[in-house]
Amino acid sequence: MAKTKISSILGSVLAALGIQADLEFRVDIPPRQELGDYASNIAIIYGRKLKQNPLKLAEQISKKVTELDKEKLVSKVEFVKPGFVNIFLNNSFLQQTTQDILQLDHAWGTSQAGNQERVLLEFVSANPTGPLHVGHGRWAVVGDVIARLLKATGSKVKTEFYVNDVGNQVEKLEASVKARRQNIEIPAGGYGGEYIKEVEGETRAEMLAFLMDQQKSVLKALSVEFDTWFAESELHKQDKIRWAIEKLHGLGVTFEESGAIWFKSQALGDDKNRVLMREDGRPTYFAADIAYHLNKFERGFDHLIDIWGTDHHGYLGRLTAALKVLGLPVEKFEIIIGQLVTLYRGNEPVRMSKRTGEMITLQEVIDEIGADAVRFFFSATDVNSHLDFDLELAKKKSQDNPVYYVQYAHARICSILKKSEMRNAKSEQGIDLSELNHPAERALMFKLLTWPDLVVEAARLRHPHRITEYGKELATVFHSFYEQCRVLGNPARLALVNASRITLRNVLKLLGINAPEAM
RNA sequence: GCGCCCGUAGCUCAAUUGGAUAGAGCAUCAGUUUCCUAAACUGGGGGUUGGGUGUUCGAUUCACCCCGGGCGCACCA
Question: ipTM exceeding 0.85?
Answer without folding.
Answer: yes
